[in-house]
Write a structure and sequence with these properties.
This protein is of the alpha/beta class. Among the domains are: 6-180, 3-Layer(aba) Sandwich (Rossmann fold), CATH 3.40.50; 186-253, Helicase, Ruva Protein, domain 3, CATH 1.10.8.60; 258-373, Zinc Finger, Delta Prime, domain 3 (Up-down Bundle). The chain is 40% helix and 10% strand. It is built from 24 helices and 18 strands. The protein is elongated and about 110 Å long. Residues 387-546 and 632-641 have low confidence and may be disordered.
Length: 678
Amino acid sequence: MGYQVLARKYRPQRFADVAGQDHVTRTLLNALNQNRIAHGYIFSGHRGIGKTTIARILAQALNCRTEIGSAQRPTPEPCGVCDSCIEIRQGNAVDVIEIDAATNRGIDEIRELRDAARYAPARDRFKIYILDEAHQITEAAFNALLKTLEEPPAHVVFMMATTEPENIPQTIRSRCQHFSFHAVKFEDILGQLNLIAAQEQVEAEEAALALLAEAGDGSMRDALSIMDQAIASAPCNEAGKPVLAALQIRDLMGSVPNTVFERLLEAVAAGQSAELMEQLNVLLNAGHSPSTLARQMVRYLRNALMAKLGGEQTELLQISADERARAARSALLFSEEDLTRNLQIMLRTFDDLNYRQEQRFHLELGMLKLVHAQRLLPLEELLSGVAGGAPAKSPGAASRGPVPRSSVSAAAPPPPRPAEPARTAPAAPPAAPSISPFGSSGGGWGTGPSIKQSVVPERVTEAPPTEEREERAIAAPSLPEEPAIAAPGPVAVDPPAPRVMAEAIAEPAAAPITPAPFPAASAPPIGYVETATEGALAKAPEPAHAEGGPTVEALRAGVIAALAQGGHASASTLLASGNWILDVASLRIEVAGLGKKMLSLTVNPAAEKIIRQELARLGGPARFMVVPGEGAPGGAPQMAAAPLAGSIQEEAMKNPLVQRAKEIFNAEVRSVVDLRTK
């Protein structure tokens, strides 16, 4: 006889030899011992895990001529030496008919099977039909078999093996005993490969056999097929025995060591996009397929996620001890939500590679998405970090993506300040265009506390009551304002008819500014800031040049004023509390108590452009950097002024709904708008 592949040569011939299916073999042995033989069986499960093998062993046990309990057959296991066992094992038994349902799937073939089933077996006890790939039988053919399967002759047993049991009609499944096979565990496959390597006199590294077992993916037949191929390609030692090495098997399978994926995830966690692309370029230039790399990355991310959930020794990891440790190390770099999101990104990338032309580009894009996803801030962290607090990233917070700057602060309410009388600006002519209190472009808070109010007369028209009334809000000239979030629900207050808008603007910890009048009809130029007095603007201090250059105080005052007028009040307030360090070539601003991510959101590219322009105007250094400092920010500026006595804001603060909202959200109200009509 010619060479026989390992999957056939080492095919189990007894129930005890089947690996990983104890729940099936135990049940069948008990049924044989009690003589409780069903007329129909369905064996379903993963490929290459023993469905057809167990069907043949069961057929041998049913037709074995040796009596159970005898010296040759003490258990229900087949004896393996009688004529029936030998013929069934060789595949030429008359009364055991094995049919490939993938090719004999029509109604005509099933009718022939049904007609032949009426006749008694030629020699053995049972006439057994083994239908492999039974899910491919047509619905009409199943219907033709239905009556025979429900009430078969006493000498007929049907066994159906399938990988897709859901495609078998429920009427067929309800008439059979269904056994669901499990994927073979990694340890069971590894143990079987060690036994076969010893019998085949093959010298194999433990890591090499672990690779073969992992490549089997729960299928014993797949692992044996790859091992057969690896032995054929392995070099021989001096004694002429094949030697299996891990590197040789990786080259054979075209796979990449998991150490590579560990380094890739380290680059992802560090946000090193260039390093990630360089490593990926090396892999692709070495000839590795983008689809294969994506598949292996998906498997490695899955293992890292399981290690994050259950630890290094969890049964969810069907890999070797070294790979378990590597997956656990990668899991420490990310939170559970990060790993889940990364796995979802790579799964989508792997799907895209199946129908894309430029696979390399899509793989590179998918890997870059992993880096970009690390920069997303959880919504909870962003809300807790507004107002200059130091946000600590919560591992349990799911990232929602970048969130716009909110005017709701989780900081503690500032202490009350002395009340100031509100000043009312003169009303503009009714023909002026409408200005929304939330719609000014480039809005931002001023640099000092001020109360801006505008009295808006209501225009009454002759339209019928069903027609919507039009209101135009005419505001007094003021600095652009930033949208604010008011308390939920309507605020019932009692001031009279005019619609009044009052806004409290935070005061930065900047150098004192001398009040100076400025025409209110035009926008304040660069270098002017709003002061505590209503309508008063003050010129920013002129830079004081020492030894041919401006001082730190001059640069601080100019930059803070420019940011405030450019609509970046948060950045202005933040930098006002920072530590400014000036040397010959650069300016360094250290902001204490604020995380790196929150700092990058507050001092965004637009704010950096304003800082750069102002430094150039003042003759400062061309380079500057804003970095997190140490400790909590000293003398952090208050984010809101106390409400004035008798004002709309004070009335709103007394409302129970507003007080309840502040308790729930730990927030503060910065703007109050009276929307009542006369």
